[in-house]
Design brief:
The complex is a heterodimer of chains A (279) and B (317). Helices cover 74% and strands 0% of the residues of chain A. Chain A has 279 residues and is mainly α. With 317 residues, chain B is of the alpha/beta class. Helices cover 35% and strands 24% of the residues of chain B. Chain B has a six-stranded mixed β-sheet with strand order 6-7-8-3-9-10, sandwiched between helices. The two termini of chain B are 42 Å apart. Classes of the chains: A mainly alpha (279), B alpha/beta (317). At the A-B interface, helix 1 and helix 4 of A face helix 2, helix 3, helix 4 and helix 6 of B.
Chain lengths: 279, 317
């Protein structure tokens, strides 16, 4: 060891002075870490790409061939928009709930002893997981080409531009979930329960416009219903199919999504931090 | 001057636990002090360190770090402390350098940039120097999955010092390190203290590391068993002695009796004389009988620690 590298507080210490800038910088760093983790993990990378391929190709393709003809609109673009929204939403949930595992292997200690707010930590996780979930679009685009889905790419780009809202909405649900579930095994099973029922009940693959009774009620209760419907509102704006494909006005979808985001983020963050410190 | 760490009536009772893990402890640590916090497994060391570093909520009591209240000014406290956790707190998916880059961004030292080459020259120079210092070299750019336990520890040490903390909490920092790495780590920490006056709060099971502490605090069953300098602890708990022998053993025993010094003779005939004070020099200088054996028995901190825990448990039983 050499003396030259001994740090000294007396020396000019670099640093970001503004509190807001420090929080933003930390959020960005945490978000980028999520992207790096996604890129550096080949197995999760493969799963992220293959997941939409399986659901779009196998399930979507089968529904399209057997039931699609009975619908007053083209099923494949309907399903595609649902799957884009679903993938971004659910990918962010999975990324955020990874915090439970990180708490178990002690990495969260490094994040939670840093002089930044808990909201910056969780926002960084949400943003990073949202960006990482965009990787799944590779699989979706591959399926668009393979299944020859008739699509105006301008419409698709508008839906993808909704990615930040979808990621924030999904991430906030992930935060809410980890606020109440601390055990990694329970979290693993719980995430599956959070992801798969929503995929079917919220109308990602299967139309829910005609759902009634308990299924209709569950569709209305699913937070993802409003995010997917917002995406379809954007995609079908000004098109005659909108009368059959869209559930609510875009403003209702946006309002409910923002409401869920605020409640989930605030309650989830409070509960997560409380559970972490109040053992 | 205010103490760097001030703990008053600290209590921590875990949920569903019958007895508190930390039971009404109080101590102060001065600025620049090396404070060793010792105790057997389960004594409450890690619980205390977790509370002081804001990762665990206390049940009752008051804690101030560098003048900042732990409850009301947690962010200010966090910006003034550095920590090496008992279990490595690193991201195995990232490289060593990426872990440090994340850390400096969390502490607001540098604007985060996604690629190492785009980070400021000052940062890159520092990383390369520190990697050199702890012997990681270019390995620091490799994924952490390829690191040994010792290499991860070294990385954590670099990381904890990047923001130049006023107080460094070391929770068994050298566990898993080989003797050479342990030695070089302590050399480095000594230099950091000398250059910066960093306060160090240390828990360790290697008691020779605590020998050079300014003060030692022993905790057992959540309560403070004793606190003082290593010398005070040894003096309080153990007797210092010298072992003597002479060709004319009878003359030596007579001289010791004449000087009023109590001597005991062991089974092989060696004479043991206890003494008080920091050194045996005054006692030895009074002897005129030619000696054939002279050994000074200076008990170690480990001897004192073991004796303390033994007597504490005997009293409790």
């Amino acid at each position: 060891m050499t003396a030259r590298a001994v740090p000294s507080r007396r020396a000019d210490r670099p640093g970001i002075r503004s509190r807001l800038a420090r929080e933003a910088n930390a959020t960005f760093a945490i978000a980028w870490r999520e992207v790096l983790r996604a890129v550096k993990s080949p197995s999760s990378l493969a799963f992220t790409v293959i997941f939409p391929v399986i659901f779009m190709g196998v399930l979507g393709g089968s529904i399209s061939q057997n039931l699609g003809g009975a619908l007053p609109y083209a099923y494949l673009p309907f399903m595609l928009i649902g799957m884009v929204a679903n993938t971004l939403y659910q990918g962010t949930i999975v990324g955020v709930t990874n915090l439970v595992e990180e708490r178990e292997n002690d990495f969260t200690a490094e994040l939670f002893v840093a002089p930044i707010s808990r909201y910056a930590v969780l926002l960084g996780k949400i943003v990073g997981s949202g960006i990482a979930s965009l990787i799944s679009l590779v699989g979706i685009v591959a399926m668009i080409l393979f299944m020859q889905i008739p699509l105006n790419f301008g419409d698709l780009l508008r839906v993808i531009a909704l990615a930040p809202i979808l990621a924030l909405a999904g991430g906030s649900l992930g935060v809410f979930f980890i606020g109440f579930v601390q055990d990694p095994k329970t979290a693993g099973a719980g995430v599956a329960l959070l992801v798969f029922p929503q995929m079917f009940l919220a109308g990602a693959l299967i139309p829910v416009a005609a759902s009634t009774g308990i299924l209709g009620l569950l569709a209305k209760l699913m937070p993802m219903t409003y995010s997917i419907d917002l995406a379809r509102n954007i995609f079908y704006a000004g098109k005659p199919e909108a009368a059959f494909t869209v559930l609510n006005s875009p403003w209702i979808d946006l309002g409910v999504t923002i409401g869920f985001f605020l409640v989930f983020t605030i309650v989830g963050t409070y509960m997560f931090v409380r559970a972490d410190r109040n053992r | 001057m205010d103490p760097m760490i001030q703990v008053e009536h600290l209590v921590k009772r875990y949920k569903k636990s019958a007895s508190p893990a930390v039971d009404d402890i109080a101590f102060e640590v001065g600025a620049g002090e090396l404070f060793a916090f010792l105790g057997p497994n389960g004594a409450g060391k890690t619980t205390t360190i977790s509370i002081l570093t804001t990762t665990l909520a206390k049940t009752t009591g008051a804690v101030r770090i560098d003048g900042h209240d732990l409850d009301r000014e947690a962010t200010a406290v966090r910006s003034r402390i550095g920590i090496i956790f008992q279990n490595p707190s690193v991201d195995l998916h990232l490289s060593g350098e990426e872990n440090i880059r994340l850390h400096v961004a969390l502490y607001g030292l540098y604007t985060y940039r996604p690629f190492y080459r785009t980070m400021p020259v000052d940062y890159r120079t520092r990383i390369e120097e520190l990697a050199d210092v702890v012997g990681l070299g270019d390995e620091i750019f490799k994924p952490l999955k390829t690191f040994s336990g010792g290499m991860k520890r070294k990385l954590e040490i670099i990381r904890s010092l990047m923001h130049r903390p006023g107080v460094l909490f070391l929770d068994e920092p050298t566990s898993g390190l080989d003797p050479v790495s342990r030695h070089s780590l302590w050399q480095y920490l000594r230099r950091v203290r000398a250059a910066d006056g960093t306060t160090i709060f240390l828990t360790t099971h290697y008691l020779e590391e605590a020998e050079e502490a300014d003060r030692v605090c022993v905790i057992d069953h959540g309560r403070i068993a004793t606190i003082g300098t290593p010398d005070e602890l040894k003096a309080e708990l153990l007797e210092r002695s010298i072992v003597l022998d002479a060709a004319d053993r009878a003359a030596l025993l007579a001289e010791l009796a004449r000087l009023g010094l109590a001597a005991t003779v062991d089974e092989v005939g060696l004479i043991r004389v206890t003494y008080s004070g920091p050194t045996a020099q005054p006692l030895i200088s009074r002897l005129s009988t030619p000696l054939t054996v002279l050994r000074v028995h200076d008990p170690s901190l480990e001897d004192a620690y073991v004796e303390l825990l033994r007597s504490t448990r005997e009293t409790a039983a």
